[in-house]
From TrEMBL:
This is Methyltransferase type 11. It holds the Pfam family Methyltransf_11. The keyword Methyltransferase applies. CDD domains: AdoMet_MTases. It comes from mine drainage metagenome.
Amino acid sequence: DLPFRAEFDGVLSNAALHWMKRDPDAVIRGVHRALVPGGRFVAELGGAGNVAEIHAALRAEIAARGLDPDRIDPWFFPTAEEYRARLEFGGFTVEQLERFPRLTPLPTGMDGWLETFGGDFFSALPEEERAPARARVVERLLPTRCDAKGEWTADYVRLRFRARRSA
């Protein structure tokens, strides 16, 4: 819960909102409260289809180990239409909203990406199962996310928007 009341002209968020799955509307309400009337909210977040193959492999691995992926999954990847509706319901006028793919090279490989971003999935497992589970996810993704040169990519899909707090 943001404690600010009409204190800012703008709020910028980059690659954070899709981690706020528990109550995305509360986040929007908090930003609205923090902005002065006419203030801008500009953000980029993972949109529907973001890291779809990686996401599916993580969820499949968790399910194969007898856990509920819906309970563990930390991400919220909304459609453009869904997020527009949330913003408008939250008191914003959406000036621009776009969804676009962004194929992203992974310089540390898939294992490095999973180490950085997949922690919620793996921390649900006993310590001794984490490395083998991560290796299994890498193995599942090898045919589609790694090219002939051994270079890995992630299938990012982004939502980018600019909205203004209504008066």
